[in-house]
Amino acid sequence: MIIDCHGHYTTAPKGLQAWRDAQLAALKSGAPASKGAIKISDDEIRESLENAQLKLQRERGTDVTIFSPRASAMAHHIGDATTSLHWSQHCNDLIHRVCGLYPANFVGVCQLPQTPADPLANCIAELERCVNELAFIGCNLNPDPSGGYWGAPPLTDRYWYKFYEKMVELDVPAMVHVSATCNPNFHTTGSHYINADTTAFMQFLTADLFKDFPALRFIIPHGGGAVPYHWGRYRGLAQDMKRPLLTDLIRDNIFFDTCVYHMPGIALLLKIVPVDNILFGSEMVGAVRGIDPETGQYFDDTRRYLDQAASLSDADKRKIFEGNARKVYPRLKRSLA
Amino acid sequence: MIIDCHGHYTTAPKGLQAWRDAQLAALKSGAPASKGAIKISDDEIRESLENAQLKLQRERGTDVTIFSPRASAMAHHIGDATTSLHWSQHCNDLIHRVCGLYPANFVGVCQLPQTPADPLANCIAELERCVNELAFIGCNLNPDPSGGYWGAPPLTDRYWYKFYEKMVELDVPAMVHVSATCNPNFHTTGSHYINADTTAFMQFLTADLFKDFPALRFIIPHGGGAVPYHWGRYRGLAQDMKRPLLTDLIRDNIFFDTCVYHMPGIALLLKIVPVDNILFGSEMVGAVRGIDPETGQYFDDTRRYLDQAASLSDADKRKIFEGNARKVYPRLKRSLA
Fold this sequence. Notes:
Two copies of one chain form a homodimer. Chain A is of the alpha/beta class. In chain A, the strands form three sheets. Chain A has a six-stranded parallel beta sheet with strand order 4-5-6-7-8-9. In chain A, strands 1-2-3 form a three-stranded parallel beta sheet. In chain A, strand 8, helix 11 and strand 9 form a beta-alpha-beta unit. In chain A, helix 1 runs antiparallel to helix 4, helix 4 packs parallel to helix 5 and helix 5 packs parallel to helix 6.
């Protein structure tokens, strides 16, 4: 079985954006916030997936996608706590419908109703709702709800601890995933995403978060940002600061996906990061949608790179494709049963 | 000849920090800004280098370091334009003294008196002073003088154009280099530096800066941040956005140094980035000061990695060690004559 740990519903029917547009128009006009309803039929959902994620799953020979709302659209910097709550609940409910229509193909991961500098009570409640009522198996945690101005406390700050307690209680991991940036210095998928990955890793390296939460698990997407490429720098910094060895730091708590869109990058990832800490992911349909003229294949068809990696044993491949995902997302077992 | 394009005076005599401490104390107390004088003897300068940069040059068999003030100490976010101007001038004058004492070993690159959201007139004047009067050959340009809050316009914004005109007129390149971060989300050398590299590259990719300035040259340090590791992502994004091929984008304008502290990272850099766009650099004495227990050698002894790279021909090595630096820093010729 091949489990893709990183897929977003980037192809949602237009009714979703129509609702969001109306919400933002109301916000702008000062009208009272209203949750309302999303108008999307089951057929529209099927259509949005059949020629996109499902087609690509079939073509690429992958089985299940751990599926969450479109990351760039979370936009936690817009509006207030209610704006974010209504939007997140609708997005999550839509993912739930996807999983209901295609239970063999998708398992849900939720967007959190984060909002800059606001306590995390809404996030805790939404995580509980999604896990307990919608059978979701994880969440996407945004380390920068300000959208590129980095105003929230670091992920290792006690600000987040109540939320982490709930993650541990529910036994669900979080993918560290920022959203669109409203800072013109950054490009959402080109630099903000990658920077956030690198930033989170360095936060984890310099604090004792996993002493406080030995069972807390994070997936750092996009192959860990810049981390594997600069592994020597991070080993050296950790050593200079008398921090643990990186392999000890990450062992049970930090995992990287394989969203790296060329063979030399994937080869580096496989060479550097212990195989137990790598989860197959493609970010499909996502940041890069084209075909690589150098290979004639989709840039984000990351299964191909893994299949071409001569260094990988069959046992290692099974870990990356399936075993590690089952370990990091224990609730996956119920969904796949 | 081996030219190290990336060295900072991280070992400056304590008189420099004493002056800075006094400046910051005056700033805090509201006393009028005074440039005053730095009290450092030539012997103190010699001592600060003999057991550090010069010793390491000899041990590693490198010849000349393109040398600039300590990057993390630039701290453009502190104080106002006058604070930054006085501090930068002192730091640059000290580099000039270093180059005067050891003209065969060091060539100067200047810190700029940047300050958040302030026009660049001081930077233009200081660049002219350093190049014309102190024989400096380049500058370090900070894309984020806010120190981790990213409040300045992108490097491709017209805000910077007057400065670029002066760079082109003087025929000097800039290394894109941030300073210390005052945002607790970032670690200065572990994430802020690397993020800035990635951010700058993506800015260049999405704009037509080099159409406006065909002769403008930037060095993106730390091996280009995350860029070579995610080269497929950047190729794919460029293609989706109908932007030029990356090799065309960077050809005459963007160069990466070799400050990547492990062999697999260097191997990736060499495999991905055209050899004409790679400059030898070590960041010595800098971010990582320890010895790698896996090799028994200093993490930042990047010459070793290049010497071990079987893929490099002698001609390629000469480009990386010397030829490309002479091309990117044309004023180097005069200094080395």
